[in-house]
Amino acid sequence: MNQQTGIAPGAVRALTLATAGFAINFWAWALIAPLAPGLRDELNLTVVQQAVLVALPVLVGSVGRIPVGALTDRYGGRIMFPLVSIATAVPVLALTVADTYALLLVIGFVLGIGGTAFAIGMPLLAGWYPPARRGLAFGIYGAGMGGTAAATFSTVPLADAFGRNAPFLLVAAVLVGYAVLAWLLLRDGPARRMGGSALQASKAAVRLPMTWFLSILYAVGFGGFVAFSVYLPAYLRIAYDLLDADAGARTAGFVLVAIIARPLGGWLSDRYHPAHVLIAVFTGTALLAIVAAFTPPLIPVGTIAFLGMAAGLGAAAGGVFAFVGKLAPPDKVGSVTGIVGAAGGLGGFFPPLIMGSVYAIDGSYAIGLMLLSNVALAAAVFTWLRLSPTALALRERDEPDPAAAADERSTDAASGTAR
Fold first, then answer.
1. CA end-to-end span of the chain, whole Å?
2. Which helix (H) or strand (E) holds 270?
3. Using CA atoms, how far apart are residues 27 and 155, in angstroms rounded to an integer?
């Protein structure tokens, strides 16, 4: 143990391998979306069929984080990372022979396993980093969400240059190679606390009020990022008459800023209280959304507004998981991560639907952006009321942790039996 930092030797290697595993699995998870327009033409799909095909892996990957997080509490990241990576490689290889819509749906469902990898790294790193250092570590790990960007920008060029199956064969090989590397080099941390059964861990996490508070905030922060990364190209084309290439490039800048801001949010949460960071970034996002609602000139005001929102939403995601690292019981970090991560993934589904509906009714995105401002401001107020240092101190005094109480009752019962 490093006496100055409180970090055990080997922590950086664990962080590097975990982040790489997260990014690689997310790369695989996002393979279908870039190919969806071509598949629509090739298989004569309707717009709804295309949307279902793209959404299915996202939905499965989001919900699947709940059991995978609980399983990681029980068995550790050293087992779960190779297992999930090998399991993800199977549907990736199956994409090489997919030639019907029904088969693509089945493969897309199984491909959702790749999205569950997010829930593995947090409990793994909690065994290596003390609570005071987890904000930055979790934030760096969270930047592995950039794996989806790798899929977005490499899949079609690889297919055009080397054939339709080239991206699938490459990603499958990388997944298998990573699984072998993780099995050989990855280790669970010395401070790891093994959880009980996955079902018991999930039930205990559900009983924690903190789990639901953070789920709400992550649905706003990460959900907002996902929604913008999906819908921003269409918004820029319609609101500013940009060409597809220009809109795509600006969206890539939005995604990059959010990815960079996530470790920054974690680092700030280590230096200051995570609640203060979340209140600041949610408030800033709310103000910038109001600016964007008036469709200001794209250069410089519009660009500053959208990049500022990207930074705010990315930092919010980092701040939420800094809270997880500090508040979650040591043997339930994975279970809490799974539930909170699922909320973030699902949170990205609704804003694009709302934006599209508002535009269809009003012919403008202004109301949709004002709704984002209201939600972000509500998240800031909610953080202040429920998660500020004062609110946490009062809750700890007045409301005993139900999960801890249950554990204590179980311990007392066991002691009574022993006597």
1. 38
2. helix 244-271
3. 10
Burial of 248 (0-12, 13-18, 19+ CB in 10 A): middle
> In 3D, which of 316, 311, 323, 330 has the Cα closest to residue 256?
311
Got the DSSP string for 48-87?
Answer: HHHHHHHHHHHHHHHHTHHHHHHHHHHH-HHHHHHHHHHH
Residue pair 221/313 in contact (Cβ under 8 Å)? The answer is yes
What is the pLDDT, as a whole number, of residue 406? 46
Q: List pLDDT tens digits, range 228-251.
A: 887 788 889 888 999 888 888 898
Tokens of 163: 């054939």
Residue 1: what pLDDT?
53
> Buried b / exposed e across 301-323, counting CB within 10 Å, b at 16+?
ebeebbbbbbbbbbbbbbbbbbb
Q: How far, in whole angstroms, is CA 351 from its chain's centroid? A: 16
Q: What are phi and psi of 249, to 5 degrees?
A: -65, -40
Query: What residues have CB less than 8 Å from 393, skipping those under 6 apart?
Result: none
pTM of the model: 0.87
| CATH numbers and ranges of domains, the chain | 11-195 (1.20.1250.20), 209-327+349-400 (1.20.1250.20)
User: Nearest 5°: phi and psi at 360?
Assistant: -65, -35
For the stretch 290-323, pLDDT in tens is 999 999 999 999 999 999 999 999 999 999 999 9
Q: Give Cα 2 distance to the centre of its chain.
A: 30
Q: What is the pLDDT of residues 195-218, one digit of tens each?
A: 677 778 888 899 999 999 999 999
